[in-house]
Every structure is written in structure tokens, then in C-alpha cells.
Design brief:
The chain is mostly helical. It has helices at about 5-10, 15-25, 30-45, 55-75, 95-115, 115-130, 135-140, 145-170.
Length: about 170
């Protein structure tokens, strides 16, 4: 691999690292700190990165490990994500349809945030970040088969909880 350039190689990964950190910690400020710490740690270890096949997965692994270490030290309670950005610029649906859509989205966010960290991370890496199974499994330090099982359980848990709420109420 070529020599690592901060602006060309690491800086473009900051948004993905931030989103992964946000999904794990559920705290925007903590995610920003994790992003910065991940980039600094990757930059200080740039001499070792010549043997790394996938820099993105390597940085996500660093971010995940840092987040888990911080959570273990602080014994954080999960905080729900703010409902920022839930309203789209859609003019077709009426106010009642928008309200219903926003309520459904809020329920999905609540269900997602209530999942255990491992399941949240699996969904984040594969379904939101779009990583391949191999990359996501490497970032979570799992075998590909174990990652697929974890992802299936996460999707099933979200679906079951959502159907439970929709069919039977809160």
C-alpha cells in the first residue's frame, strides 16, 4: 500500500466514523470525540498501515473499540437520538400523513436505540453504511457467518418489536 496521506486517505472517512460512533454511543458530542480520536490514532500508527488491506474497516474497528472502552469505563446509559432531520422536504403528503410517518420513524429510532450494542452496530455497518459482509464482520471482529447471524437477529428484533407496537399498541 502507498504511504498514507491524511487529507486523501483518512479525512474522507470521518463521516462514516462519526456515524458509527454515533450509533454506538447515541451521543453526538461523544461521536465527534471518537471520530477525532480515531483519526489521530490512525495517523499516529500510519507506519503500520502499510499491511492493512482495508483502511476504512481498520478505522471503523478503531472507532468501535474506542467507543466500547469508553462505555465500559463510564457505564453509560443509552440516550435516544434527537429527532433531527426526520422531516423531509416532501410536499405531497398532508399533515396527517407526515405526522404518521414521523411517528413511525420515531418508533423505529426508539426500537433501534433499544437494541443491544452488538445488534445496533451490525445494522449500522451493513444496512446504513453499506459495508460488505466481510468488511463489517472484520470491523466487529467476527467471522462472516457470525456477523450474518448477528445481523439477522438484529433485523428480526426490529421487525418483531415494530409489528408488536403496530398490531397491539404501546
Amino acid at each position: 500500500m502507498k504511504e498514507i496521506d491524511f487529507r486523501q486517505d483518512l479525512l474522507p472517512l470521518k463521516d462514516k466514523i462519526y456515524r458509527v460512533g454515533l450509533r454506538i454511543t447515541l451521543n453526538a458530542q461523544e461521536a465527534e470525540d471518537l471520530t477525532q480520536d480515531t483519526l489521530v490514532r490512525a495517523w499516529t500508527r500510519r507506519a503500520e498501515l502499510a499491511g492493512v488491506k482495508n483502511l476504512e474497516a481498520f478505522c471503523i474497528t478503531i472507532c468501535r473499540n474506542l467507543a466500547l472502552d469508553r462505555m465500559a469505563r463510564a457505564e453509560n446509559a443509552n440516550q435516544p437520538l434527537e429527532a433531527a432531520g426526520t422531516e423531509a422536504c416532501d410536499t405531497a403528503p398532508g399533515p396527517d400523513e407526515r405526522l404518521e410517518r414521523d411517528e413511525k420513524l420515531q418508533r423505529v429510532h426508539q426500537i433501534f436505540n433499544a437494541l443491544p450494542e452488538r445488534l445496533r452496530t451490525a445494522l449500522q455497518l451493513r444496512d446504513i453504511e453499506g459495508l460488505s459482509y466481510a468488511e463489517a464482520a472484520g470491523a466487529m471482529e467476527l467471522t462472516e457467518a457470525a456477523f450474518k447471524v448477528t445481523l439477522h437477529r438484529a433485523r428480526k428484533a426490529v421487525k418483531t418489536q415494530y409489528e408488536k407496537i403496530e398490531n397491539y399498541g404501546l
